[in-house]
């Protein structure tokens, strides 16, 4: 999708359709909209009244110009109430616009960003960025395996902005485009089926990214992982016919001052293992690699934007979790890379075992901050619902930083409390730790507390449980059904923020 910026008149070049966001508080057409209305002999105000267009979100009012203007249609799009408006409103409305454009066969459109500024608090450049993100995210479709594709796509969007802001806006527009495309890249990986993306394939994708953007990359096979003492990760991999891979990507920005370690849960398929999942729960377990795919998406964005001042390590312990004669069992006792022993209570709590070794590994790089993202527990979805990620960690400042950025990106996150009583619940009868809590209560937190044992106390660490929002079976806002690409924009934005510090 080509994005242009127009700091001039509303209709300056030929376009198929001009989209103007209208808040529900707008009763009378004024300013430029009133001028357009008079150029169209009052058609906008007449139709607005006839069709009772009230600016509620999801509503549109199409006014054909019949050759009177340079554009074929003027379309008012509902932006909802100003009271509820924030940056995510701009994303949602932009997604509605690109989807609606198909009805008009309009692949070259203009969106008036200026009009958003009357209802959305914040800088115009941030609103423009959000519009770009919403448009690119809203247009995404997973149709790689459809033999008949619907090939309508909006090809060009012109953003109408205030002229004096042009340079700032152009910069943010670029960031928005990179972030949304990186998020779509993550979605595509999440959606790709488990017979196509297995651990070896995931490693290949990391190698391709490294080649494309000049990252360092190390891929370790089973034998090398064994030598590194990754007994927890390798136990999970034992039941699978497809061998595991341990992936380490390194981005080194110029004048690097801050080192960040990212870890993504990379289960290319989670059947539950011997504690096999019932059929309904096994559906969608291709998305158990969402954390890993997010790490790869974040690296794509880093490759495009090349931020200075930061060094980023991306680590993925990639494997399947399958039942087999060779599979690991409940009651097995494993030894993780840092020597901690773990008694297996349930082979379906495999994510924390793979992450344990990945966190030990990334800690050895001496990062200033570690962030892991994982589709870790069903309990987190029960606690917070499917749209919000659970955030935990050992450092309140680092947690607050992540939460603050997520407010701007619209990726909903909520902190869950670590407490000492729950710490007792992950003790095992015969080893240092159990991979399951004593009961199902607080399951997202006991999983987080388990991970905490594999990061040094002195290193700020944030754990993001994305089991809910990583994928959607219904679609919501600018997310179509499937992988959402959560939390690519939040973590990349946080890295960009650190790059400027
Ligand atoms: N991959 C699942 C968690 C999950 C559930 C992700 C639903 C996305 C949607 C994880 O490996 C798992 O199975 N966890 C178990 C842990 C339990 C056995 C302690 C769970 O949540 O039930
Ligand atoms: Zn599982
Ligand atoms: Zn899992």
Question: What does the model show?
Answer:
The structure is a single chain. The radius of gyration is 24 Å and the shape is elongated. With 501 residues, it is an alpha/beta fold. The protein is built from 16 helices and 19 strands. The relative contact order is 0.11. It folds into two domains: 2-161, Leucine Aminopeptidase, subunit E, domain 1 (3-Layer(aba) Sandwich), CATH 3.40.220; 184-499, Zn peptidases (Aminopeptidase), CATH 3.40.630.10. The strands form four sheets. An eight-stranded mixed β-sheet has the order 7-8-10-9-13-17-14-15, sandwiched between helices.
Task: Give the key terms.
16 helices; 8-stranded mixed sheet; binds ligand BES; Leucine Aminopeptidase, subunit E, domain 1; Aminopeptidase; binds zinc ion; 501 residues; 6-stranded mixed sheet; 2 domains; 21% strand; alpha/beta
Report the end-to-end length measured between terminal Cα atoms.
Answer: 32 Å
Number of helices: 16
| Gross geometry | elongated
Specify the CATH homologous superfamily of the largest domain.
Answer: Zn peptidases
Which small-molecule ligands are present, each listed once?
ligand BES, zinc ion
Radius of gyration from the alpha-carbon trace, in angstroms: 24 Å
Estimate what percentage of residues fall within beta strands: 15-25%
Q: Which regions have little confidence, pLDDT < 50, spanning 5+ residues? A: none
CATH topology of the largest domain: Aminopeptidase
Decide which structural class fits the backbone.
Answer: alpha/beta
CATH architecture of the largest domain, by name, is 3-Layer(aba) Sandwich
| Tally of separate domains | 2
Strand order of the largest sheet: 7-8-10-9-13-17-14-15
Number of strands: 19
What share of the residues lie within helices?
Answer: 25-40%
Q: For the record, what CATH class of the largest domain applies?
A: Alpha Beta
Q: Which sheet architecture does the biggest sheet show?
A: 8 strands, mixed
Mean pLDDT: 97
């Amino acid at each position: 999708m080509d994005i242009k910026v127009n700091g001039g008149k509303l209709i300056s070049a030929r376009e198929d359709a001009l989209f103007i966001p209208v808040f529900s508080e707008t009763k009378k057409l004024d300013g430029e909209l009133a001028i357009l209305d008079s150029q169209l002999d009052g058609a906008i105000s007449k139709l607005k009244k006839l069709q009772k267009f009230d600016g509620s979100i999801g509503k549109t009012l199409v006014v054909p110009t019949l050759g009177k203007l340079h554009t074929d249609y003027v379309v008012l799009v509902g932006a909802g109430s100003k009271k509820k408006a924030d940056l995510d409103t701009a994303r949602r409305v932009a997604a509605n616009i690109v989807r609606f454009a198909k009805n008009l066969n309009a692949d070259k459109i203009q969106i008036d960003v200026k009009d958003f500024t009357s209802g959305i608090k914040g800088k115009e450049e941030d609103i423009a960025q959000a519009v770009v993100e919403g448009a690119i995210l809203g247009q995404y479709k997973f149709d790689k395996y459809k033999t008949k594709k619907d090939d309508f796509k909006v090809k060009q969007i012109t953003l109408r902005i205030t002229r004096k802001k042009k340079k700032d806006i152009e910069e943010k527009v670029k960031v928005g485009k990179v972030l949304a495309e990186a998020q779509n890249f993550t979605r595509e990986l999440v959606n790709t089926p488990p017979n196509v993306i297995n651990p070896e394939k995931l490693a290949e994708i990391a190698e391709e990214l490294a080649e494309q953007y000049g990252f360092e990359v190390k891929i370790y096979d089973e034998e090398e992982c064994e030598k590194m003492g990754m007994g927890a990760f390798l136990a999970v991999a034992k039941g699978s016919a497809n061998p595991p891979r341990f992936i380490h990507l390194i981005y080194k920005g110029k004048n690097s001052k801050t080192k960040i370690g990212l870890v993504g849960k990379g289960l290319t398929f989670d059947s539950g293992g011997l504690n096999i999942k019932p059929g309904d729960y096994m559906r969608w377990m291709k998305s158990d690699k969402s954390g890993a795919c997010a790490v790869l998406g974040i690296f794509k964005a880093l490759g495009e934007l090349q931020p200075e001042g930061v060094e980023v390590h991306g680590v993925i312990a990639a494997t399947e979790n399958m039942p087999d004669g060779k599979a690991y069992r409940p009651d097995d006792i494993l030894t993780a890379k840092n020597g901690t022993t773990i008694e297996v209570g349930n082979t379906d709590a495999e994510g924390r075992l793979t992450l344990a070794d990945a966190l030990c590994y990334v800690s050895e790089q001496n990062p200033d901050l570690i962030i892991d993202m994982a589709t870790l527990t069903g309990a987190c979805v029960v606690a917070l619902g499917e749209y919000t990620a659970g955030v935990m960690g050992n450092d309140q400042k680092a947690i607050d930083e992540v939460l603050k950025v997520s407010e701007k990106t619209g990726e909903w996150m909520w902190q869950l409390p670590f407490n000492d009583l729950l710490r007792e619940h992950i003790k095992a009868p015969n080893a240092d730790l159990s991979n399951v809590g004593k009961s199902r209560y607080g399951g997202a937190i006991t999983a987080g507390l388990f991970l905490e044992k594999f990061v040094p106390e002195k290193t700020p660490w944030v754990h993001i449980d994305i089991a809910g929002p990583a994928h959607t079976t219904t679609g919501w806002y600018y997310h179509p059904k499937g992988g959402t690409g959560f939390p690519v924009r939040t973590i990349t934005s946080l890295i960009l923020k650190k790059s400027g510090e």
